[in-house]
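fwd from M.: "can u put these together and see what the complex looks like"

so here's what she sent:
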Amino acid sequence: MLDRIFGTRRTRQFQRILRNGKVTLLCLVLTIVVLRGNLGAGKFGTPEQDFKEIRETFYQYRGKRAEPRRVLEELQTTTEQTASSATNNYAEFDINKLFVDEEEDVKKNPNEPYSIGPKISDWDEQRGEWLKQNPSFSNFLNANKPRVLLVTGSSPKPCENPVGDHYLLKSIKNKIDYCRVHGIEIFYNMALLDAEMAGFWAKLPLIRKLLLSHPEVEFLWWMDSDAMFTDMAFEVPWERYKDKNLVLHGWNEMVYDQKNWIGLNTGSFLLRNCQWSLDLLDAWAPMGPKGKVRDEAGKILTRELKDRPVFEADDQSAMVWLLASQKDRWASKVYLENHYYLHGYWGILVDRYEEMIASYHPGLGDHRWPLVTHFVGCKPCGKFGDYPVERCLKQMDRAFNFGDNQILQMYGFTHKSLASRRVKRTRNDSSNPLEVKDELGLLHPAYKVTKISSS
Amino acid sequence: MGQEGFTAQKRGSSTLPTSTAPNGGSRSGRSLLRGGGGGNRQIHKTLNNIKITILCGLVTILVLRGTIGFGSLVSDNDLENQAIIEETNRILAEIRSDKDPDDPEDNQDQSVINLNDTYSLGAKISNWDEERSLWLSRNQDFPNMVNGKARILLVTGSPPNPCDNAIGDHYLLKSIKNKIDYCRIHGIEIVYNMAHLDKELAGYWAKLPLIRRLMLSHPEVEWIWWMDSDALFTDMVFEIPLSKYKDHNMVIHGYPDLLFNQKSWIALNTGSFLFRNCQWSLDLLDEWAPMGPKGPVREEAGKILTANLKGRPAFEADDQSALIYLLITKTEWMKKVFVENSYFLHGYWDGLVDRYEEMMEKYHPGLGDERWPFVTHFVGCKPCGSYGDYPVQRCLSSMERAFNFADNQVLKLYGFRHRGLLSPKIKRIRNETVTPLENVDQFDIRHSTQGSSN
């Protein structure tokens, strides 16, 4: 076609030039694109950013909203959200959209050393005076039995794991049962009192606050939410601890000699309400504040304690460290109990329940019939534990039923098996119910008798 | 050189005449190659095309890698997480299903109840009052009055299997914490039931055999207080004025007008009521139970109740309608029943939850009535099931608000309160002090209720 205008040779040259030009342009474009992809082009951005922008544009067109904004007025939130989610179906609802934080966290001065509370030095005197003035709030329920407050707790937000809350519920029911039989009060905590002492350290400010707010309580019994009572008939031997202020499950050699980080367990322990305990809490707390302090403390603990893995400081390791390094100050008032399972590691206990039922009876509290089965490492409330999920959950069910059977036998029932939720009768209904005695004597036990003078 | 190559591809046919022309060394060299015939040229052409295609492909990949990167590839860690989540879901489904692993004999036990048989809660007892007072006189260590107040046992419960969704279990947990707090402050013991004591009386009827069983096993208990799992205490100071009921054996929230004149099915509420531990109560339970057994008995009874009670929808017999029907047909029972509405022994939530801020501003705990409700009862919300009668958002935010409203009253002793009624976080309202006992004397609820005997 061009032949006719320019002549053949000219045409060919022209076409050659065109071709060359096309190729040059193509190569140029490719070079620019590759360079932009690898190095970026300043304010023109990288292709990755383009990709994201394109994606977001598409999403906008689809009608997806941005993150819900924090609203200060609750009423506004309610009306806004009702419009968009008026569903009656619980499965469709995202619970995390429910919570509204009206205020910012209080910012602490990072240079200020942590203090668990203002120093109190005369707590024994203050408390003694108060008890004298309030005889109806006696710290002893009868000659042998101190007033005990069992403290446990969990997060105010739902568990990440969908079954976590169900196991927390079963765990608190189990504690309610034991405490009702033994005349112990319960405090279930769901509030984080001190944002710096979050996680396993949260119990420290809580314990201090409860000791100071309940002077009538003689012993505070901290128990983790993953620990269950499996011996409903065992009463803690309070007279054994009349000169002690802290009772933990553990072994003297493992704590004082070996400095083993699992030489004791802070998942279930007793603390007397006195000045010594306040001092202990003051000495225990400094490794707790989250952030640099806790991380650095963790390194010290891993170095100083036997077999401790590398992670931030936890309250248990800190306690081992405290007792081992300041033995002279604390050891005389600490009792490391191992004659019964004030804390019983679940791994060695749960498979033997049937054997225990066949060979022994409740009331022993030790390896034959453990007082507490503690599911360390299972973490049913979180997403990932240290053990297989199935083993943990099935064994928790078994431990729960093992304990529940002892409660149900009071009323003439028992679980059909340790794995079964269903119950069956163990004795027929009688027209003389008061003549039937429950085998374990849990309905009206002697240790529950309250003999204090009322005002 | 490349140009010639391109030229050769693009101008296959037109170069033919020039190939034989003897001008340009390289060109002729190339022409000689080309001169091998059309087929050769085509092969070369194809080869060149392929080369260019591969080249372009490589360049495209390079460019794309530079732009988007490898972000879409799943890492090992994610795969592991995925596996764990799947396993959890499988186990969860197994746990939630009602199937029990060791339950072969269950099917054989099911016997059909004859419609003519009257169901019985247990062996008939006729002398419970005498038996009980004899026991109390022999067991002075377990008196029925503690610190001048009658001994109360609070009974509540929930099904033994996990809720249909996790939110339900979370609110059951908050609900029991709320009850634990109230009962600790007021010296009341709690029984949390998770067992079906009687297969026939399942569902809302399950409370009947349970109450009977607890009465008979705990003669030291003077009053048994049943409370639903969806009812929350919202007045931590208020105490039930038991002296008001010294001539009655049952205390239940309701309206006499709705009960006798309108015969409404919601005239009374069995979500929160008290039963005295006595023969009369055992007899009432025996009279109440027959409409309960599941199956044809409950269905038929449901029809009778719908026919006789105003506003009742058609469904199987429930304990509340059955009690109302019993009381309006056999009015002799009413002598000992106290229908209470001067305080909210049961407070229907819908009219209360929006007013909490107003209440905090104008009133104070201890009133128990519409100014500061004693109990807020979330009827119809059913958080343990899949569907409620109300929008989920409304139910859950109201339950959260009621819980925090009550929790503020508990935390007051410790110097804290929630940041807002929908906030799980707390803030200080009182500084720490070296003389904490002053605060204890001032703020501990027990010190204000102690001494006021009922």
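replying to her w this: The first helix of chain A runs from residue 3 to 6.
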